[in-house]
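Please, does this match?
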Amino acid sequence: MRLRQESLIRRVIFFSLSLLMVSSLARATTVVVPSDDELVIGARAIVKGRVIAMTTRYSEERGMVFTYVTLEVDEVWKGAITSRQIVLKQPGGIAGQYGTLLYGTPEFALDEHVLVFLDTWGDGSLRVHQWFLGKFDLSDNGSGVTEAVRASAGENVDIVGRSNAGSITDRMESEAYERMIREKIAYNHRTSQLNELRYYSRAPLLAYPPDYIPVADPGSDTVKNFTFLSSTRPLRWFEPDSGQPVNFNINTTPGPSGSLPAYGSAADIVVDVLNAMGALSSVSGSSLRMVGAASPGAGCGIRAGDGNSISFNNCDSYFSAASSCSGLLAVGGVSLYYLSNPALINGTTFYRIGEGDVTMNPYANCYYTTRCRVQE
């Protein structure tokens, strides 16, 4: 039985390339839920506020869509934020004829009251720390009591565990939760300072992203809700329909914290990825054929324009250097799809995937101590 289980785990490799089959069973983003203390320490800022505006833009530089969420700040509990308004830069959304769908990013809605744990992109733009794990909705539970509720993971997110580094809160009466978080901020003050100095001493913390355009322009779309309704907009690789394979670059260039401890060489990583592709390419009744090749230096995380890729070097700064054995372990999704020229197949309208990527968190090496864990 154990051999059979290990064999199964090897087939269900963590890279979750099954997302590319556009299957409801796909798992594209992998997380370990962090403790309350880990969230507090890892976040550069913690803010309570209300969503007052959202707009999307297609980034020529990254070849993908970002959603800019404007918050009216009610309270700042942690971090050097003095502005009454801040703008978060979140990956994903639809702008014009382009779309980006990354699994595990939090959803937002206008007039929503939220408590968000924040960190920054490399250029100082604010974003939600640890994606959906760092966003809490503040709303009435239907009984006249306001609760703080962690955002939903959404589809295609694999929660493989929960941190053992302290309590974990997914839902709590809001006043009690706020008291607890404030107490943890005070208790972890020194550790948070060291974390900031170690990982962010040279990184700015900006109220507005440098590329944010506050006025409407032809390349932007105002949206009421930042959601991923992929069930109403099915995505599909069109290559298998014409007998062509879906090609991937396997970028084995190690990340800033070195190679994965579970592997003796980059060749081992390639073997595991190719085995996963082989499993997905042999599903009965499916014409999907996936082909991978080791291409050191080719493919940079989740960004369009460099081909379908699986990478390990965090060259696009999706992961915070303050990451640990919890939080985001790997992220995947469709970095670019097209709303133009859809195809009607068996009565369903599908939109063409332009590029899909998977990127692994190199700072979470302490979690990947065995190949089984990596493959899972």
About this structure: The first strand starts at residue 29 and ends at 33. Residues 1-26 have pLDDT under 50 and may be disordered.
